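Internal tracking record. Fields below are filled automatically when a chain is submitted to the structure queue. Please do not edit lines marked as system-generated. If the sequence contains nonstandard residues, flag them in the REMARKS field before resubmitting.
Queue: standard
Priority: normal
Entity type: single polypeptide chain
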Amino acid sequence: MKLSLGPILYYWPKQQLLDFYAGVAESPVDIVYLGETICSKRTLMRTEDWLQLADKLADAGKQVVLSTLALLEADSELKRLRRICSNGKYPVEANDMGAVQLMQGKHFVSGHSVNVYNDRTLALLARQGLKRWVLPVELSHKTLADLQAKRPDGVETEVFAYGRLPLAYSARCFTARAHNLPKDDCQYRCLDYPDGLQLKAQDDTRFLALNGIQTQSAHTFNLLPELEQMRTLGVDVVRISPQSHRTGKVIEIFSKVMGGELESAAGDTLLEKMMQTGSCDGYWHGDAGMAQRARTAAEQIFQGTKK
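SYSTEM-GENERATED OUTPUT FOLLOWS
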């Protein structure tokens, strides 16, 4: 299996972003996805800047993929999408069906926001040029097994394995709304939340995070304990979603576990210390997304041993 780094889902200052990718260039990650996927108003990095960064990472030996917006609302966004899809140098991760249409006849990756729920959809996209698809985060390993059994030849499978879950997109900017600001005058408040604005219920339960027009899980989705199962299922690529701190360490832990240099349980313990709100893995097991089946099972075993 290969290790990929998904696009940054948050709005970071340009220099922070450039420093981040300078570290990524030296990391053991194989594939790097670049580009703005959430909001077209996040323009500290323009298309030309992303392309220059792609060249630097490619020179460092990384396979670079350009990612597109998941929700387009304006002609200016469509113009930018056309430029990305016609770049002629780097493959594209299509995050909506408009991008899929523009990439027809070319090799592309379908992102997790493209609803691939059955083998017929997968076959249709393969006929249009699909070379890798990312499993929608809400699907279970059982669904993945069914899809893998009928996966078209020449198509790779990628699984979102670490990071806050991207749950939904809306035309409304929730971060701006939280500050009583209109979307068109948001004052770029996303810059204040490098890992999203975490929400909590009245009982102090933290269950969601706001990231502009995107709603995320507050908990960090973590499939490190499921790497062997993914190998068995024929998964080709394991994706890590960037966070503002310690992403390099997360990449290192995944790389060592995948290479047999570190036990999965030990790596899982290290990862848990880096999460703001703890972990979840429910969707993978067909449960509620907030569930933590792997950790709960491990704790039950440990308690039984103590008795």
